[in-house]
Amino acid sequence: MIAPEPRSISIPTALLPVDGRFGCGPSKIRPQQIAAITAAGTTLLGTSHRQAPVKNLVGAIRSGLTELFALPDGWEVVLGNGGSTVFWDVATFGLVRESSVHAVFGEFSSKFAEAVAAAPHLGDPTIVRTEVGDHPTLSAVADADVYALTHNETSTGVMMTLERPFLSDPDSLVVVDATSAAGGLLWDPTQVDVYYFAPQKSFASDGGLWLAACSPKALERIRSISASGRWMPASLDLNIALDNSLLNQTYNTPALATLVMLNDQLQWMLTNGGLVWANRRCAKSARSLYEWAESRDWATPFVADPTKRSEVVGTIDLTGVDANAVCAVLRANGIIDTDSYRKLGRNQLRVGMFPAIDPDDVVALTACIDFVVAALRD
Prior knowledge:
Layout: H1 31-39, H2 52-68, E1 76-81, H3 83-94, E2 100-104, H4 109-118, E3 126-129, E4 146-150, E5 152-153, E6 158-159, E7 173-177, E8 194-197, E9 209-214, H5 216-227, H6 238-245, H7 256-272, H8 274-294, E10 299-301, E11 313-318, H9 323-332, E12 348-352, H10 359-377
Parallel strand pairs: 2-3, 2-4, 4-7, 7-8
Antiparallel strand pairs: 1-9, 5-6, 8-9, 10-11, 11-12
Helix pairs in contact: 1-7, 2-7, 3-4, 7-8, 8-10, 9-10
């Protein structure tokens, strides 16, 4: 029997989610965030980022993140333009003194290691690697001054519990890429010194901005490297970013709409119960997705260890049905961005489950996938 052309399959309206956006970044933006942009249209947008209205907005974001993450006294939230990709370069100048250790278990966890390896003023990084679908555990390495972890590997749907490597030098820093984790996963600041991210995932904003929660020990490292005379471009100078952040501004002009959406999402989280509430929402979605996959003979959670399955990015392998065809049908019916990560090369679906995504919509998505698979097999 000839399989139907995917785009000709119509999913019953009763099965469809209310919102069909399940992307892993950029992710679903709530209508209220767009309304916040409209409200800022004559008060913030098109005004100077050095004046009080915008500085107050930046201050609200910094204080809101401090509350959301329950940061201890002495921590600072630092921000700058460029997103997490730029922060990898920022960190090679402003955080790594001489050498670093990296847990690598996917596309994005490898990026910081690659940036360090390319930096002529740093030593070769130590890389501890596992196959995709798992994550390594770091141990102390002599003379290492940065241990680089990734809270959630966006490409594979693996999350890790953040723990300071045992017996590490007390002066070493634990630096965590939290781009797809921040705002959706729980973490303990006592185990971390720098927790950096961009706002286009759990915070449902646009990219092009990096934010970093920095411990007092990290702040001292930033200051000491700056005082050492190490050359660095001003746009990548973490000390300049810190000085500006303490004034509730960025070194160069930020995208104000990004800040407005970020702040609205942040206040939504805080009003509803903070990070614990946001994580419970994500965990509920994840539970529905993984339990559904485990109950199907043609679907399997990609991450074998349930404790390492992400609560914000779900990856599901399919057997006997083309995942690309499933995604094509879903997209034709208004359900978008369920494709696997392109470089992973698996017959897989990848589902964003960030706080803005309604857990009921994740359940509806699984019903739609059931319908599509049955139609493709007829």
